[in-house]
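Batch manifest, entry 17 of 40.
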Amino acid sequence: MGLRKRNSANKIKESKKNLAFAKLNDSPISPRKMRLVADQIRGESIDSALTILKFSPKEASRRLEKLLVSAISNWQSKNESLDLETSQLFVKEIRVDSAGMLKRIRTAPQGRAHRIRKRSNHVTLILSSKTIN
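Output type: structure tokens
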């Protein structure tokens, strides 16, 4: 590896030091329903995001709450020397992408059939720290 490439790789590594992410693949909820909940916590601190998810009645909030706790755990394992309360973690980015679809057939009158699409999604959650250490 050349010097220029090594230097740029080190810069990228340093910039990702304050980031932690978690992924949820193939969640059997439609992406549209998941985005409704994801939009509520985008940019929030982790305390307020956990509160929002805990008291939301939607099924998607249960899955996102578990994903957020996983991302916090990933950040703690990466930054063992830093304190969670003083680091001021927040949800930097949350993406909900569509995944594979299960296609089913529902019978219809007069010998016809209608297609049912059971959608699923992938969620990527990225946490960042407001304090730069």
